[in-house]
Amino acid sequence: MKAAVVEAFGEPLAIREIEIAAPGRDEVLVRTAAVGLCHSDLHYLQGMRKFPLPGVLGHEVSGIVEAAGDGVKDLKPGDHVVGALSVFCGTCKQCLGGRFALCADPEVKQPPGKAKRLAREGQTVSQVFNLSGFAEKLLVHRNALVKIREDMPMDRAALLGCAVITGTGAVFRGARVPAGSSVAVVGCGGVGLATINGAKIAGAAQIIAIDNFTSKLELARKFGATDTILASDGDVVARVQELTHGGVEFSFECIGLPATVEQCFRMLQPGGTATVVGLFAPGVKASIEGCEFFLEKKLQGTALGSARIREDIPRLVELYMQGRLNLDDLVSRRIRLEDINEGFAAMTRGEVARSVIVFDTA
């Protein structure tokens, strides 16, 4: 099968023929329908977090089940599925506590290079994120997949497994934003736009979108933003405080930078909650003024929106089918696997919310 392979960090992906194993116990073979290009993929491609090379990235994926291994009773050939980063075992302390995204079972959530599912010319190819969706097929643990209704468009369904479940989950499960509240979202890429959309669905009365690109701020209004701030136009915190008469109740950092985390905390009103959604490089630190905690401000993180994928993804599908979840405007471009490097270049230039690779599943 064809796959986009990382052969060297910081270099373009190479389209190669690789082999994929047959499904073993608790494994499912899926024919890829669509896969989104995520900033996390770009960070890994650039070497922010190293993994054994060669390897295949791609984690925002949808597809159709081709075969299921022994022990798989909930999925069968022909089922439409969404793949998710938060593969889980279901029996560890974190899973039993409902924190499925934090499952660290090494037999289920395997580090890159451990699984022997992909190979090229006798050499193991690392399966990154336990999915490796930048390929015509993927072989995964059954708990990395969620079955969805067959009338859900697959190019939009792919986005549910990362950007959308992360952004909406940060609102619904992480911060638990109540109706009528004030919200600020810093960073209007795919995750930030999903966060804005989640805040709208939750009933937030004021949603402030903040970004460096006017095009993304215009797009943010389609997802529910009531106000927009161009980050380069002066003091962002002061502007938020002006718009809200003292600060927001909830802020969301969707980039992964110390400066924006600090801004999100400072723009809170007393008693407010800042949620860090963006992915940070190892060792990076943010600085918070200690006396701010005396105002009962809270700073918290969320992993993949604190999602419970088996519950949340089908619910997101229904919200889309009802017209309440905007996935159509999240797909900026539909491209081929061979165009993946240009897709990442467009991401770097800030031109897109999401580029989605679409495969022929006929």
Any key phrases for this structure?
362 residues; alpha/beta; Quinone Oxidoreductase, Chain A, domain 1; Rossmann fold; 2 domains; seven-stranded mixed β-sheet; six-stranded parallel β-sheet; 10 helices; 20 strands
Structure description:
This protein is α/β, with parallel strands linked by helices. The chain folds into two domains: 2-161 and 332-358, Quinone Oxidoreductase, Chain A, domain 1; 168-303, Rossmann fold (3-Layer(aba) Sandwich), CATH 3.40.50. 25% of the residues lie in helices and 25% in strands. The protein is built from ten helices and 20 strands. Strands 4, 6, 7, 11, 12, 19 and 20 form a seven-stranded mixed sheet that branches. Strands 15-14-13-16-17-18 form a six-stranded parallel sheet, sandwiched between helices. Helix 4 (163-175) crosses helix 5. The protein starts with a strand and ends with a strand.
Secondary structure blueprint with pairings:
Elements: E1 2-5, E2 14-17, E3 19-20, E4 27-36, H1 39-45, E5 55-56, E6 60-68, E7 80-83, H2 93-96, E8 118-120, E9 123-124, E10 126-127, E11 137-141, E12 145-147, H3 154-157, H4 163-175, E13 182-186, H5 190-202, E14 206-211, H6 214-223, E15 227-230, H7 236-244, E16 248-253, H8 258-266, E17 268-276, E18 298-301, H9 309-321, E19 333-335, H10 340-348, E20 355-358
Parallel strand pairs: 5-10, 13-14, 13-16, 14-15, 16-17, 17-18, 19-20
Antiparallel strand pairs: 1-2, 3-8, 4-6, 4-11, 4-20, 6-7, 7-12, 8-9
Helix pairs in contact: 4-5
